[in-house]
């Protein structure tokens, strides 16, 4: 079984329908490019993308399935969504473990226990706060990630949440994964110094629209 090693840079290869790169073949190419650059694992969304990525790499895949309302719990909200991505080739399941109500009313500890029992893969809890991270570990999560920090209370900061990584790493007895708005080598280093076990980077590597817009924004007007 493929596992997430300590000190890994994970590249999140995701594109929504608004992105010209939307689709499994583009995401498989992204994953191959990430691997060629030294990525140690891939994070990917949905069974189609995951199956296409699985076909071209042996790297561990952290799978998720975004379903439902993005304003609520939508990262792998149900057991069925977890089962679908594992069948497609995911080695770990990432799921929303914020303290928000789940769409099916399911308790997260029962969901995690069922994934362990029936799918036999580790669960990475995507959280937004220290409280949610501690609760996720108590609920059985194998790893805790800061993925949802800044996305659940209406205001998204521009930078990554180094402080949350530091707090989680100080309190938890499991790997803490840094994720969200990490853009530069300095950000990556700050996360490692704060105690991150692994670092996930998405937009800054796999979203050329974002990269282009940032540089276009640097051109003086007039
Ligand atoms: C909040 C949410 O839905 N995050 C998603 C989780 O899978 C992805 O859209 C992010 O790209 C991923 O977390 C990596 O983060 P960033 O792209 O900022 O490096």
Description of the molecule:
The protein is an alpha/beta fold and 222 residues long. The chain has a single domain, classed as Alpha-Beta Barrel (TIM Barrel), CATH 3.20.20.70. Helices cover 38% and strands 16% of the residues. An 8-stranded parallel barrel has the order 1-2-3-4-5-6-7-8, surrounded by 7 helices. Helix 2 links the parallel strand 2 and strand 3. Helix 1 packs across helix 2, helix 2 runs parallel beside helix 3 and helix 3 runs parallel beside helix 4. The model has no long low-confidence stretch (mean pLDDT 97). Bound molecules: N-acetylmannosamine-6-phosphate. The site of N-acetylmannosamine-6-phosphate (LRY) has 15 residues, from strand 8 and helix 8. Keywords: Carbohydrate metabolism, Isomerase. One of its GO terms (cellular component) is cytosol.
Give a quick summary of the entry.
This protein has 222 residues and is an alpha/beta fold. The protein has one domain (8-216): Aldolase class I (TIM Barrel), CATH 3.20.20.70. It is built from 9 helices and 8 strands.
């Amino acid at each position: 079984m493929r596992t997430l090693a300590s000190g890994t840079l994970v590249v999140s290869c995701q594109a929504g329908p608004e992105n010209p790169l939307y689709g499994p073949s583009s995401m498989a190419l992204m994953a191959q490019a990430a691997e060629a650059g030294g990525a140690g694992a891939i994070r990917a969304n949905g069974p189609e993308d995951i199956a296409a990525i699985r076909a071209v790499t042996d790297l561990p895949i952290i799978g998720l399935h975004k379903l439902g309302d993005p304003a609520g719990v939508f990262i792998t909200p149900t057991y069925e969504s977890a089962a679908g991505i594992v069948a497609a080739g995911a080695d770990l399941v990432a799921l929303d473990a914020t303290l928000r109500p789940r769409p099916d009313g399911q308790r997260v500890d029962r969901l995690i226990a069922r994934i362990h029992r029936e799918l036999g893969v580790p669960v990475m809890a995507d959280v937004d706060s220290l409280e949610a991270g501690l609760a996720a570990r108590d609920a059985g999560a194998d790893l805790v990630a800061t993925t949802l920090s800044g996305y659940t209370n209406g205001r998204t900061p521009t930078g990554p949440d180094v402080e949350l990584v530091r707090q989680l790493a100080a309190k938890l007895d499991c790997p803490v994964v840094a994720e969200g708005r990490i853009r530069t080598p300095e950000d990556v280093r700050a996360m490692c110094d704060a105690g991150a076990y692994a670092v996930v980077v998405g937009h800054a590597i796999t979203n050329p629209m974002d990269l282009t817009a940032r540089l276009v924004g640097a051109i003086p007007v007039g």
